[in-house]
């Protein structure tokens, strides 16, 4: 038993087994979609893999797992949409499972934040005030020709 595992309350073996099944399903789905993933622009590759991982996680009922994770004082995977497999791996590492660097998920929280910042800057431009969030509002295309409030700069 690892030092980390010894400090985790609850049934860590049951949690590890369930997380292993989910991660295996994520990897299998990646393998099934490898041709499609290889055709993506490199800047979209990790985000697309993350979407597959997230869809696998949400394809089943994980409420019991989330309750077990809460009981064990671990992340419940409730707000890790942008980096779901990385978060799953972090939980498993907390439970004593080791990953070699080549097996660690590249789509981490830090990678996602940097990617989001880069794309936001391209989309919205450099912010005048870094503390104010960017907001993107989308409308149905029917508003393009029938909106009394639209204003276009000439």
In short:
By secondary structure, this protein is mainly α. Helices cover 52% and strands 0% of the residues. The protein has one domain (3-124).
Explained architecture:
There is one protein chain. The chain has 154 residues and is mostly helical. The protein has one domain. The chain has seven helices and no strands. The protein is globular and about 60 Å long.
Compute the number of helices. Answer: 7
Mean pLDDT: 85
Helix content: 40-55%
Shape: globular
Pattern of helices and strands: HHHHHHH
Profile the largest sheet.
none
The stretches of 5 or more residues where confidence is low (pLDDT under 50) are none
Strand content: under 5%
Counting helices, strands and paired strands, the structural category is mainly alpha
How far is the N terminus from the C terminus? 68 Å
Number of domains: 1
Global Rg? 20 Å
Number of strands: 0
